[in-house]
């Protein structure tokens, strides 16, 4: 069995790492380059950097920040936010990103998934999906959870896979930042319906939540932000805990 991955997520706004609850009540956390380097030292498997207002503000993710991140990391990292065309992917790859994450642009122009996957390979493309469970279904949202769409989580994830993306990053808006556990039922359904890795996001509050997301949720990776940013859980402690629960992880 492949090792499960632990992925800190750094949401970026105005060049700083920030964190909110249910996509609201945003507060500053710190410098994204310094935080990323520290997580690398602690044994994180990967990092995800998301410019959370780039799509809403219709601007590009800053390449110079990506270059600084790449110079200070020795683990893979994904960047997302404001990626709308092939040239954006080319620019970020040249700046040092290992993968790019597309969300709103992929929903608006699904062929972008095909184009980037054909141009750079499926392993370079992560399709991020922000979805909220309401009225008995998981509705996909755009622009950092601001705009509901007519797309549904499972059918959209399957389409993204069929178009060539290499991973799905699913964030449950219902669970985001509230630290009551991941959306394991939806994650399990998603993981079992796809043949590409699923990264779980939204809801991590303690170590048992990670045990649950890898066992009950069948996720390939667990992504979290505030519990790492505010030092509620140390990555080495989390990995040792998972190892004791017979969950395969990479230990330093």
How does this structure look, described?
This protein has 252 residues and is α/β, with parallel strands linked by helices. The chain has a single domain (5-244), classed as Aldolase class I (TIM Barrel), CATH 3.20.20.70. Helix content is 35%, strand content 28%. The chain contains ten helices and twelve strands. Strands 1-4-5-6-7-10-11-12 form an eight-stranded parallel beta barrel, surrounded by six helices.
The stretches of 5 or more residues where confidence is low (pLDDT under 50) are: 55-59
CATH topology descriptor: TIM Barrel
The proportion of residues in beta strands is 25-35%
Number of distinct helices: 10
* CATH architecture type: Alpha-Beta Barrel
CATH superfamily: Aldolase class I
Highest-level CATH class:
Alpha Beta
As laid out across the biggest beta sheet, the strand order is 1-4-5-6-7-10-11-12
The SSE order reads: EEEHEHEHEHHEEEHEHEHEHH
Care to count the β-strands?
Answer: 12
Total domain units: 1
Largest sheet, if any? 8 strands, parallel, barrel
Average pLDDT: 90
The share of residues in helices is: 25-40%
Which outline best applies? globular
Distance between the termini: 18 Å
Helix/strand structural class: alpha/beta
């Amino acid at each position: 069995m492949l090792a499960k991955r632990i992925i800190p997520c750094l949401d970026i706004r105005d060049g700083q790492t920030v964190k909110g609850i249910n996509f609201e009540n945003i507060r500053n956390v710190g410098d994204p380059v310094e935080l990323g380097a520290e997580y690398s030292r602690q044994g994180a498997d990967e990092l995800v950097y998301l410019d959370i207002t780039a799509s809403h503000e219709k601007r590009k993710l800053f390449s110079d920040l990506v270059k600084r991140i790449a110079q200070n990391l020795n683990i893979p990292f994904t960047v997302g936010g404001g990626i709308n065309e092939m040239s954006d992917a080319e620019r970020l790859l040249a700046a040092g990103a290992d993968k790019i994450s597309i969300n709103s642009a992929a929903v608006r122009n699904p062929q972008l998934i095909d184009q980037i996957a054909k141009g750079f390979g499926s392993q370079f493309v992560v399709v991020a999906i922000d979805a909220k469970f309401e009225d008995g279904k998981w509705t996909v949202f755009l622009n950092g959870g601001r705009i509901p769409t007519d797309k549904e989580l499972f059918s959209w994830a399957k389409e993204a896979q069929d178009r060539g993306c290499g991973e799905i990053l699913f964030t449950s808006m219902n669970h985001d930042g509230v630290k009551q556990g991941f959306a394991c039922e939806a994650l399990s359904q998603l993981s079992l319906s796809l043949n590409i890795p699923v990264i779980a996001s939204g809801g991590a509050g303690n170590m048992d939540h990670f045990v649950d997301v890898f066992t009950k949720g069948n996720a390939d990776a667990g992504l979290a932000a505030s519990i790492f940013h505010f030092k509620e859980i140390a990555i080495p402690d989390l990995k040792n805990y998972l190892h004791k629960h017979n969950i395969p992880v990479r230990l330093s």
